Amino acid sequence: MDNRQTEFEAMAMPHLDAAYSLARWLSRSPTDAEDIVQEAMLRAFRAFDAVRGETVRPWLMAIVRNCFRDHNAKARRHEPASETVLEHLVFDGPSPEAEALGASERRRLDRMLALLPDDYREVLLLREMEDMSYREISEAIGAPIGTVMSRLARARALLKDKWLAEDAR
Amino acid sequence: MTCAEIERTSAFLDGELDASAGAEAERHIETCKHCQALVAVAGEASEALRGRAARLRAPASLRARIAQNLADEAKVVRLTSLRPVRRQFWLGAASGVGASAIAAALALAVMVLPAAESLTASLVDDHVQALSSGQTIAVVSSNHHTVKPWFAGRAPLSPPVSDFAGEGFALAGGRVDWVAGGKAAVVVYRHGGHEIDLYVWPSQAVAPPRRSERRGYHVVSWRARDLTLAAVSDVQSDELDRFVRLVQTAVE
Questions:
Q1: Is B118-251 CATH 3.40.1000?
Q2: What's CA B24's distance to the chain center, in Å?
Q3: B246 in the Ramachandran plot: left (φ > 0), alpha (ψ -120 to 50) or beta?
Q4: Residue among B16, B37, B46 minimizing CB distance to A134
Q5: CATH second-level architecture of A103-169?
Q6: Mutation target among A35, A156, A158 for the B interface, most CBs of B within 10 A
Q7: Is some CB atom of chain A closer than 8 A to the CB atom of B68?
Q8: In the CATH hierarchy, which fold is given to the domain comprising A1-89?
Q9: Residues B75-99, buried b or exposed e (16+ Cβ, 10 A)?
Q10: Residues of chain B contacting residue A131, judged by C-beta atoms under 8 Å apart
């Protein structure tokens, strides 16, 4: 095995589960998530020399996000996405806390998160799952910090509205 | 039903405000029921998502596929330093050392192909990634006196930069990107609604294929002096050829 590969694996592979989780949450599909992560790791490896010395994880997550976007764009071109189909693709991963108290609340939140528009959901996932700063998210999605700030606020406002609307029912 | 201050409230939750703006946000939240609800739901969402980052395990089959991909790719990347091997082969061939020369020739033929394909893949992937992230241009200018100096110190070389607006290919700017593990200067042109990226990097042992296609994007590449150039775009291939001829004329 060559050095570059060994070095890359040592740096990137510890984040594989996180990359896969993010891809699952972004794509809401186990098979898509695998394709996305596979492509992301290859792209990361090709560009690897560029990041030595930088923080690997946010960089890797940005690549996962970009691969998801490309994947999505390709899928849309082939078969126009149907909103009704998307609504059924709610996250269904194994959840160890499923038996714990509040599991139904959590499930409700998962369902709402799954329904957020991609632009909003991705900033919220990068912020909350990856704990990335506005600057890091801005670099990851290639948009100004102001856009990150307003998308996050709108994502939360949408969640709040959905949440309150269900409570009122 | 919302409040004009949600951005500040949300940034406050993320700890992205300075002390004085934070204090203002806090005072506002105390009096605004919309923002109070926002804080409560955002807190739930945060708790639900936090710590889930590595909760799902990547399947073992995925892990194995990635390891295989990396090993294949590593083989290809090693070829960029193929020059000494190639020289040995020519020496061997010239002195009539038959068997090893033939073996080397076979090895070369087998190995150069994926390398060339990988370069096309790398170029197109980079182009598509830049397009989809909206980050195709780091220096925006139609003036080559602005674009060319921008590359100094950023790129490993000074790329040819000209504006062909009169011929329908307007200079739009430039960026620096990584292609197959090396830094390349990318000069960005617009043609109609399309973008053409001209990648320029120092020549390496492995030449990219002169003309290739991937995922609907055309790649035309060539060498000039000690540079390798590759034009990547989704414009029609005859238009891309016209662009390449303009650049070739400008370079020579």
A1: yes
A2: 42
A3: alpha
A4: B16
A5: Orthogonal Bundle (1.10)
A6: A156
A7: no
A8: Rna Polymerase Sigma Factor; Chain: A (1.10.1740)
A9: ebbebbebeeeeeebeebeeeeeee
A10: 50
Q: Is the pTM of this model over 0.95?
A: no
Q: What is the pLDDT of residues B133-177, one digit of tens each?
A: 776 777 777 787 878 878 877 777 888 888 898 999 999 888 888
Residue B58 DSSP one-character state? P
Alpha-carbon gap, residue B204 to B81, rounded angstroms: 8
Residue type, A159: L
Which residues sit opposite B173 in a β-bridge? Answer: B140, B188
Chains A, B: CB contacts within 8 A come to 158
Q: Which amino acid is at B98?
A: G
Q: Where are the domains of chain B?
A: 6-49, 60-111, 118-251
Q: Residue B22 is encoded by which pair of tokens?
A: 């934070």
Is A165 exposed, middle or buried (CB count within 10 Å of its CB: 0-12, 13-18, 19+)?
exposed
Mutate to test the interface with A, among B17, B18, B44 (most CBs of A within 10 A): B44
Write the ipTM. 0.77
Residue numbers in B near A34 (CB within 8 A): 59, 62
Delimit the domains of chain A by residue range. Answer: 1-89, 103-169
Nearest to B171 by CA among B153, B201, B150: B150
Which of B196, B207, B210 has the alpha carbon at shortest distance from B243?
Answer: B196
**Is residue A117 classed as helix, strand or coil in its secondary structure?**
coil
Q: Across-strand partners of A136?
A: none
Residue labelled with tokens 């989809």: B132
**Is residue A149 helix, strand or coil?**
helix
Question: For B31, left (φ over 0), alpha (ψ -120 to 50), or beta?
Answer: alpha
**pLDDT for res B169:** 94
Give me the sheet containing B170-179, strands edge to edge. Answer: B139-140, B170-179, B182-191, B194-202, B227-233, B217-224, B211-214
Token digits of residue B116:
């060339």
The predicted-structure confidence for A115-153, as pLDDT tens digits, reads as follows 889 899 999 999 988 888 998 898 888 889 999 999 999
- CA nearest to B38 within chain A: A160
The residues pairing with B183 across neighbouring beta strands, listed in sequence order, are B178
How many residues would you count in chain A? 169
Residues facing residue A158 across a β-bridge: none
Nearest in space to A143 (alpha carbons), one of A160, A161, A123: A123
Q: Do B59 and A48 touch (CB under 8 A)?
A: no
Between strands B182-191 and B170-179, the pairing is antiparallel
Show residues of chain A in contact with B35, CB under 8 Å: none
